[in-house]
Design goal:
24% of the residues lie in helices and 28% in strands. By secondary structure, the chain is an alpha/beta fold. An eight-stranded parallel β-barrel has the order 3-4-7-8-9-10-11-13, surrounded by five helices. Strands 2-16-20-21-27-23-24 form a seven-stranded antiparallel sheet, with helices on one face. A five-stranded mixed sheet has the order 17-1-22-26-25, with no helix packed on it. Strand 14 and strand 15 form a beta hairpin. The protein starts with a strand and ends with a strand. It binds alpha-L-arabinofuranose. The site of alpha-L-arabinofuranose (AHR) has 9 residues, from loops.
Length: 494
């Protein structure tokens, strides 16, 4: 393959990378909570019933924010079911995933978990079967100082200090007919406006996320977003985007190009937020909150058959999925001017980077891709110019073999690079026009057969290893193996 050149300049900044794009998502779904993060009967359980082995693995991902309790689950959830003495909490029939929900894990347990992992809690209120007032009361329970009915209840449940939940989602995927309480955009907008007003009246410091379109495949894509944002005005600080992708046709070249359409999705929703802010003659515009994203196409069945913690959505990931996960994050970094929050969906067992089986734990391929970028997250996203070979995707047009993102952190430059070629090496030169590259500080690579996955028997079949292929001499050169992901930190000359 001909050489690809990536040219950077330290002044060509897109914006600060928001640390909150390294978020996750925990839903009451399958074995995500129960037997996932929370299992008092496990040999690994701590005094709070949380699995220490799972916590230790998740800590490596250095996530900053986690969304809870759903997902589709949120649209039928009444938060009061999940507080107070555990033996008095109701066991209910959960409709979104057709499961039994014992409510032994709820708001206070979630916040406790967040504190153990330094995550900011992010809660999604029920705007399906719940009321705006119920949403307001939840803000009161979590965020008010003691002295109100709900805050005093929180204190009685063991948390004198407010939980200080900063970000609240106004429902989940309300544009989808599968959602409990789904309504047309205009009706959702009224519910969301009423809820957001009361929630913000209760705590002026919170930020809200309006439900945007579930994805570009929706008939109402962008129309929904426009109508909702128009009605909510300044009450929506963010608008949500969701996206799940998969290699349904067994066409890996096409699959590795799918993140070109993630770029387009981001740019289309951003255009919508710009339209709204111009229309409102406001200098503010809603940020993008990509609060569900991942590869998910194999384990699609969502019927738990009335069981407790059924095995649902237990997707097993291979190397090509990990490359796509890396490219999602790289797309968010390249759109640092508008993508402010993002949540990998999900964390444990359910389309998760971490799997448990009994007391065992295994890290999936996507775990490594996420960690490699998250460990190098701080800095300014740089706009890079790429010159090099491309191929033509059936649905995604011209696709560069190199997908990249670059982050400048003082004298350090982080470069992320995927070689999308299925069979050819990619010779790469990185040139930072105004700051010579002095040396490599550290570099790692994720590379294996495309379909290779990790398993409980072979947990390290796909794992990142050090990469020693760089040669630096003001610029940097390396040959990237086919279908590989490399994350490198360079030192720059001042
Ligand atoms: O993450 C699994 C599900 O996908 C979520 O519950 C829902 O919001 C989305 O459709």
């Amino acid at each position: 393959m001909h050489r690809t050149t990536l040219t950077l300049h330290s002044q060509f900044s897109i914006g600060d990378v928001s640390p909150l794009i390294f978020g996750g998502f925990l839903e009451h779904l399958g074995r995500s909570i129960y037997t996932g993060v929370y299992d008092p009967s496990s040999a690994h359980a701590d005094a709070d019933g949380m699995r220490v082995d799972v916590i230790d693995a998740l800590r490596e991902l250095q996530m900053t924010i986690v969304r809870y309790p759903g997902g589709n689950f949120a649209s039928g959830y009444h938060w009061r079911d999940g507080i107070g003495p555990k033996d008095a909490r109701p066991k209910v029939r959960e409709l979104a995933w057709q499961s039994i929900e014992p409510n032994t894990f709820g708001t206070d347990e979630f916040v406790k978990l967040c504190r153990k992992l330094d995550w900011q809690p992010m809660l999604a209120v029920n705007l399906g079967t719940g009321t705006p007032e119920e949403a307001r009361d939840w803000v009161d329970y979590c965020n008010s100082p003691t002295g109100t009915r709900f805050a005093d209840e929180r204190a009685a449940n063991g948390s004198e200090a407010p939980h200080a939940v900063p970000i609240w989602c106004l429902g989940n995927e309300m544009d989808g007919p599968w959602q409990l309480g789904h309504v047309p955009a205009g009706q959702y907008a009224i519910r969301a406006q009423q809820a957001a007003k009361m929630m913000k009246d209760c705590d002026r410091s919170i930020a809200t996320v309006a439900c945007g379109s579930t994805g570009p495949m929706m008939d109402t894509f962008l129309e929904w977003d426009r109508e909702v944002l128009e009605h909510l005005g300044g009450l929506a600080d963010y608008v949500s985007l969701h996206r799940y992708v998969g290699n349904r046709n067994g066409d890996s070249a096409e699959f590795l190009a799918v993140t070109n359409s993630v770029d387009r999705q981001i740019e289309a929703v951003d255009a919508c937020t710009r339209f709204i802010s111009e229309q409102r003659q406001s200098s503010e515009r809603a940020g993008l909150c990509f609060d569900e994203w991942n590869v998910w196409y194999r384990a699609r069945g969502g019927d738990g058959g009335g069981a407790f913690a059924p095995e649902l959505l237990e997707e097993r990931y291979n190397l090509e999925d990990a490359l796509v996960v890396a490219m999602f994050l790289m797309s968010f970094i390249r759109h640092a001017d508008c993508v402010k929050i993002a949540n990998l969906a999900q964390l444990v067992n359910v389309i998760g980077p971490v799997m448990t089986r009994g007391d065992d734990l295994m890290k999936q391929t996507i775990f490594h891709a996420f960690r490699m970028i998250s460990a190098r997250k701080m800095g300014i996203s740089l706009r890079g110019a790429v010159r090099g070979p491309t191929y033509t995707g059936e649905r995604y047009g011209e696709v560069a073999y190199l997908d990249h993102a670059a982050v400048l952190d003082g004298d350090r430059l982080h470069v992320f690079a995927v070689n999308r070629s299925l069979d050819e090496d990619l010779p790469l030169t990185i040139d930072c026009a105004d700051r010579p590259i002095a040396k490599v500080l550290d570099a790692e690579i994720l590379h294996a057969p495309l379909q290779a996955e990790n398993s409980f028997d072979e947990p390290n079949a796909v794992a990142a290893v050090p990469f020693d292929g760089w040669v630096t001499n003001r610029s940097a050169e390396a040959v990237l193996p086919p279908h590989s992901f490399t994350a490198t930190t360079f030192a720059l000359d001042p």
